[in-house]
């Protein structure tokens, strides 16, 4: 019985951690029907000069969203 408080604390911690992990899946809370699928681009600057570029575009392909990455460095 001397280990009962430790067992209760451990059980509570395990239950809390599994509940937290179950609720942290960001995909369940994102409304993809309102997603902004416009292209995104930027120029990478190093020491005041262009060092590369990044361009991302997104499109929907059925139930899947495809992200295309065109990064040049």
Summarize the structure.
With 73 residues, the chain is of the alpha+beta class.
Sheet/helix structural class: alpha+beta
**Mean pLDDT score, rounded?**
76
Please mark out the parts with pLDDT under 50 across 5 or more consecutive residues, or reply none: none
Total number of strands: 3
N-to-C terminal Cα separation, in Å? Answer: 63 Å
**SSE ordering:** HEEE
Give the biggest sheet.
3 strands, antiparallel
Provide a descriptive summary of the structure in words.
The chain contains one helix and three strands; from the N terminus they run αβββ. It has a three-stranded antiparallel sheet with strand order 1-2-3, with no helix packed on it. With 73 residues, it is of the alpha+beta class. The protein starts with a helix and ends with a strand. β2 (49-61) and β3 (64-72) form a beta hairpin. It is flat, with a radius of gyration of 23 Å. The longest helix has 20 residues, at 4-23.
Q: Which keywords apply here?
A:
27% helix, alpha+beta, 73 residues
Please render the helix and strand layout as text:
Blueprint: H1 4-23, E1 40-46, E2 49-61, E3 64-72
Antiparallel strand pairs: 1-2, 2-3
